[in-house]
Design brief:
Elements (H helix, E strand, L loop, with lengths): L5 H44 L3 H14 L4 H13 L3 H12 L6 H18 L2 H9 L7 H14 L3 H13 L6 H17 L3 H14 L4 H13 L3 H14 L4 H14 L3 H14 L3 H9 L21 H9 L3 H8 L10 H12 L5 E2 L6 E2 L24
Antiparallel strand pairs: 1-2
Helix pairs in contact: 1-2, 2-3, 3-4, 3-5, 4-5, 5-6, 6-7, 7-8, 8-9, 9-10, 9-11, 10-11, 11-12, 11-13, 12-13, 13-14, 13-15, 14-15, 16-17, 17-18
């Protein structure tokens, strides 16, 4: 049976026409979709520039639906959700990106970083920690380590914070020696509270070796020595610190006084504190001198005429050159008056008025506290508190 080629010749033009029509339809559809996606994108951008975030989000969602393969639209949408505080929606967008198999390594790292930021802003520190750890070895490594360091410090996980700070220190981008010393001091404080004084002493020794110019390791070491009954060693530690960090003297003047009395070296301590007080007067240094029976050496001070000097006359000497409500209140506390029955009421009023003046204030955020903090509880900054009270700033 012979095959009839007539039908084949007749069908070729028809197939060509049908193919041409199908291609035209696909091209037209593709062009329409491509026009719709950029139009929605630019409309969303316009809303964003006009600070109309609700309309911008709607436009970006439309653009993503028209072209789900556009990574940049996903990132823009996720960032918008995060800025608006809609962290769950931001997490869904970035997790959707990470779930795609065709995502490049660079975009995958970027999405992982954005997801970690979502968790951080939402306060989900455990999930943020896990997300940040996956950025090790990426171009976001340093930023991730800084975020991890902040998480560990906020949650007081000092061993993990020390490990991350050491990695940052080894990267040679900045020095973290003082910060690492703080971490060791915090661990030493925990060991001291647990009664393991030997471990605390070793941690403090490492802190001093790591940051010999920082005052905290030496102060904590002296306090531990006092606790162990090593008053002479504590005095030597603090006397040496006076030369290394003289501006921090108000923070450890009381400890120096305690060590001097316990080791019977008050004369040496008074002479040392008098020299430092003359160079930089401070109410804390003044009170340490007075507590040991001494008096501050104030330039151009006239000696008392009639009565023999008393240690608390040091407050008057201080007031001569440095007006201080705190010093005035301390002096009045033991002064005798003709109408002594009203003295307690007056003294209570003065104590109430001077209490805010005895606070320490963070130079970074302004947080005030009666206790001195090496790590500000308000802004989490280190060494942001000046060693002087609010009245003396």
């Amino acid at each position: 049976m012979d095959f009839d080629y007539t039908w084949l010749l007749a069908g070729l033009p028809l197939a060509f026409v049908l193919g041409w029509l199908a291609s035209r339809f696909d091209l037209r559809q593709l062009k329409m979709e491509n026009r719709q996606a950029p139009k929605a994108y630019f409309r969303g951008l316009n809303f964003l520039l006009n600070e109309q975030q609700d309309k911008a989000i709607d436009a970006f969602i439309e653009a993503v639906q028209n072209d789900p393969d556009t990574q940049e639209l996903h990132f823009a949408l996720g960032n918008l959700f995060r800025r608006r505080g809609e962290y769950q929606r931001a997490v869904r967008v970035h997790e959707h990106l990470l779930g795609r198999g065709d995502l490049s390594r660079e975009d995958r790292d970027r999405a992982q970083h954005a997801l970690a930021q979502d968790f951080l802003r939402a306060g989900l520190l455990d999930r943020a920690e896990a997300a940040l750890q996956k950025l090790e070895g990426t171009r976001y490594e340093t930023e991730a380590r800084l975020a991890l360091l902040a998480i560990y410090e906020r949650s007081r996980e000092w061993a993990q914070a020390a490990t991350v700070a050491q990695k940052l220190d080894e990267s040679d981008q900045a020095s973290y020696a003082t910060r690492r010393a703080h971490h060791l001091c915090e661990q030493a404080a925990e060991r001291t509270a647990a009664g393991d004084l030997d471990a605390a002493g070793e941690l403090l020794r490492q802190a001093v070796e790591l940051a010999p110019q920082a005052p905290r390791p030496a102060i904590d070491t002296a306090n531990l020595q006092l606790r162990n009954g090593e008053a002479a060693a504590a005095f030597d530690t603090l006397a040496n610190l006076c030369d290394i960090a003289p501006l921090a003297l108000p923070l450890f003047a009381a400890a120096l006084q305690q060590a001097a009395i316990a080791s019977q070296r008050t004369g040496e301590a008074i002479a040392l504190l008098q020299r430092r007080y003359a160079a930089s007067p401070s109410i804390d240094v003044l009170e340490a001198i007075i507590a040991m029976g001494g008096s501050p050496k104030v330039p151009d001070q006239d000696p008392p005429a009639d009565t023999p000097p008393e240690p608390r006359d040091g407050y008057i000497a201080h007031l001569t050159h440095h007006p201080s409500l705190v010093a005035a209140s301390r002096w009045l506390a033991k002064e005798q008056f003709n109408r002594e029955q009203f003295h307690p009421q007056v003294q209570r009023a003065l104590d109430q008025a001077t209490r805010p003046l005895m606070r320490y204030r963070c130079a970074a955020c302004g947080f005030e506290a009666h206790q001195y903090f090496w790590h500000c509880p308000g802004c989490q900054a280190w060494d942001s508190y000046p060693p002087r009270r609010v009245e003396e700033l």
